[in-house]
Amino acid sequence: NHKIGLHLYTLREQVKKDLPGVIAAVAGAGYTEVETFDYANRKHSGLSISDFDALLKKHNLQTPSGHYYMKGFLFQGKDDEWKQAIEDAKALGQSYMVIPYLDADQRKNLDAYKKLADRLNLGGEWCKQAGLQMAYHNHDFEFKEMEGQTGMDILLKETGKDLVEFEMDLYWVRFAG
Q: Which residues does residue 135 pair with via DSSP β-bridges, in sequence order?
């Protein structure tokens, strides 16, 4: 029994215009799961967690994972931001919390990746304690060589195997060569 999922980011322009319509269409097309994005201020796509959950349940959709780009937690030491996101992910029944992207100024050298790895380990530990799994979603820039290494080398070496998994985006892996 295979579950078929869709990352809502794929329909990001439509989601901005008509989230309920998109959710209905996704379910109508036969999808059973969605991966969320656009989490901010304890809301998904502008809806409270409970309203977002109700919308998904109305259309018999589950969300096993979500993208959580928590800059405050990752780069400014705002630990409560991640702890609240964990609560919200659990409320939606998610199992995976994925860091989806890094702005250019957050990936400028290997030291930046080492600091990121430390924060991923911390967030991953809190996820583990809550029964969740943290993951990191790549693009092409993690494979750019710097000083004989890549950002991906650092992330793979310096994150705990039981704390941080990787949601490999094969398009970007191939694009990076």
A: 98, 165
The dihedrals phi and psi of 118, each to the nearest 5 degrees, come to -60, -45
**Is residue 135 within 8 Å of residue 170, measured between CB atoms?**
no
State pLDDT tens for residues 106-145.
999 999 999 999 999 999 999 999 999 999 999 999 999 9
The rounded distance, in Å, linking the Cα atoms of 174 and 85 is 31
Place of tokens 């990352």: 7
Residue pair 69/101 in contact (Cβ under 8 Å)? The answer is: yes
- Rounded CA separation 53/123 (Å): 23
Nearest of 41, 34, 38 to residue 78 by alpha carbon: 41
What is the value of pTM for the model shown? 0.95
Q: Dihedral (C-alpha) 34, 37, 40, 44: value to the nearest 10 degrees?
A: -30
Place of tokens 């060589």: 145
Block residue for tokens 């989230």: 19
* Distance, CA of 19 to CA of 14 (rounded, Å): 7
How far is Cα 106 from Cα 110, in angstroms, rounded to an integer? 10
